[in-house]
């Protein structure tokens, strides 16, 4: 009987969890649609590369959507049991709130392990791989997307023109470059030949020019400077224009694995701001999965509160709790960045607050369920039995 009840409760939680997880993840992916469309239409990136990029970005979304989906699913699943008076029947059958929490705890443990694996392994791998993929897109676009006698302005601050490109595309001939990256002294570069050189380690694409000259005029048009060269390197900032934001050469904190974060924190040469950023990311790798346990602890007592509109109430309460949680989290991280809080306290503060609130609500709900069950049992015990009713007079109150 208990196994049947456990499977029933698991089903009531699993179905809304999967639906909400899909919807929330899709909504977050919709925020990247404009950038994706720009990559496909204006940058000429293949659809397969776009699909791979979305796949690599998925773990960073799942780290947030799994705990949120778990909380709302618990509120909806247990709320439906309470709204249909099934929780009342279970209490009268001798099932306590602790016994009701066993299947929820098992499901929460699965969500915790999923989030833990996502934050520790998948998120760093996805962020780093997406960065490499963006570099590959930039390299392919720089090597393949160039056309003869066509001005190319995809490079930030640089307008590039090539008079001739061989079929194999290994170099450019008759190169003309307008470099406006230095606004006070824009320059024009003319070269006989140019080669594209990429460095995967530093994520830099360089255009190496041969046998040319640079022509520079100051802002007042009073001085002209010419410089002849045999070799001249121009760094192409294509990856930043492709991804929409600049990318650092070294690994960022979100791209580091757990061991790399610990090793980086032992580096005493880093500045305080960098150390605080690394400490925040290290604590978040554990604080985010633990939020699944905290959300389950506070979701169980709130979910068993009887209400008619179960789904709307579950969504409303769930979104409100998530809003409060992430506001506390953002505020704590901001205090850590300013040096007012320690990284541990600022990152774990929302979990501590929600854990204390969940323990209090759970103990109150368990006590109410125990008193209600005892009251119902006492009412049943004190009710007249069938044998007593059979002994009552049946002839108008006169005994035979």
Average pLDDT, rounded to a whole number, is 81
* Largest β-sheet summary: 5 strands, antiparallel
The total of helices stands at 11
List the secondary-structure elements in sequence, H or E: HHHHHEEEEEHHHHHH
How far apart the termini lie comes to 47 Å
Structural class: alpha+beta
Number of domains: 2
Largest sheet: spatial strand order: 1-2-3-4-5
Helix content: 55-70%
Poorly predicted residue ranges: 239-249, 378-400
The counted number of beta strands is: 5
Shape call: elongated
What is the radius of gyration computed over CA atoms, rounded to a whole number of angstroms? 32 Å
Portion of residues in beta strands equals 5-15%
Task: Describe the fold and architecture.
The chain has 400 residues and is an alpha+beta fold. Helix content is 62%, strand content 14%. A 5-stranded antiparallel sheet has the order 1-2-3-4-5. Helix 1 runs parallel beside helix 5 (97-144), helix 3 packs across helix 9 and helix 8 (272-303) runs antiparallel to helix 9. It is elongated and about 95 Å long.
Per-chain topology:
Elements: H1 2-30, H2 33-41, H3 47-83, H4 86-92, H5 97-144, E1 158-164, E2 171-179, E3 187-199, E4 204-217, E5 224-236, H6 238-243, H7 258-265, H8 272-303, H9 310-337, H10 343-382, H11 386-390
Antiparallel strand pairs: 1-2, 2-3, 3-4, 4-5
Helix pairs in contact: 1-3, 1-5, 3-5, 3-8, 3-9, 5-8, 7-8, 8-9, 8-10, 9-10
């Amino acid at each position: 009987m208990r196994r049947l009840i456990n499977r029933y409760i698991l089903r009531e939680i699993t179905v809304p969890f999967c639906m909400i997880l899909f919807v929330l993840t899709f909504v977050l992916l919709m925020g990247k649609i404009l950038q994706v469309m720009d990559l496909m239409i204006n940058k000429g990136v293949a659809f397969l590369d776009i699909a791979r990029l979305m796949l690599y970005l998925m773990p960073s979304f799942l780290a947030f959507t799994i705990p949120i989906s778990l909380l709302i699913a618990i509120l909806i699943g247990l709320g439906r049991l309470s709204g249909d008076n099934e929780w009342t029947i279970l209490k009268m059958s001798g099932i306590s709130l602790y016994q009701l929490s066993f299947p929820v705890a098992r499901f929460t443990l699965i969500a915790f392990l999923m989030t833990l694996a996502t934050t520790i392994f998948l998120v760093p791998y996805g962020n780093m791989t997406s960065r490499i993929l963006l570099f590959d897109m930039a390299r392919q676009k720089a090597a393949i997307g160039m056309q003869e006698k066509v001005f190319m302005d995809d490079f930030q601050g640089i307008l590039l023109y090539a008079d001739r490109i061989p079929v194999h595309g290994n170099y450019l001939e008759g190169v003309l470059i307008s470099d406006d990256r230095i606004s006070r002294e824009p320059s024009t570069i003319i070269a006989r030949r140019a080669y594209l050189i990429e460095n995967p380690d530093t994520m830099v694409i360089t255009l190496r020019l041969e046998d040319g000259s640079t022509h520079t005029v100051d802002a007042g048009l009073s001085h002209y400077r010419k410089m002849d060269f045999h070799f001249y390197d121009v760094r192409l900032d294509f990856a930043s224009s492709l991804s929409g934001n600049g990318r650092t050469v070294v690994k960022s904190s979100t791209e580091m694995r757990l061991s790399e974060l610990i090793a980086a924190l032992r580096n005493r040469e880093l500045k305080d701001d960098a150390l605080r950023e690394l400490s925040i990311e290290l604590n978040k790798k554990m604080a985010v999965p633990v939020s699944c346990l905290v959300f389950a602890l506070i979701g169980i007592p709130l979910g068993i509160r009887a209400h008619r509109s179960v789904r709307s109430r579950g969504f409303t309460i769930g979104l409100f709790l998530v809003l409060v949680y992430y506001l506390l989290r953002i505020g704590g991280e901001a205090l850590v960045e300013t040096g007012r809080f320690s990284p541990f306290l600022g990152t774990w503060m929302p979990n501590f607050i929600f854990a204390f609130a969940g323990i209090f609500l759970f103990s109150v709900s368990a006590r109410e369920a125990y008193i209600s069950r005892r009251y119902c049992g006492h009412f049943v015990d004190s009710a007249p039995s069938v044998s007593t009713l059979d002994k009552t007079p049946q002839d108008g109150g006169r005994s035979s």
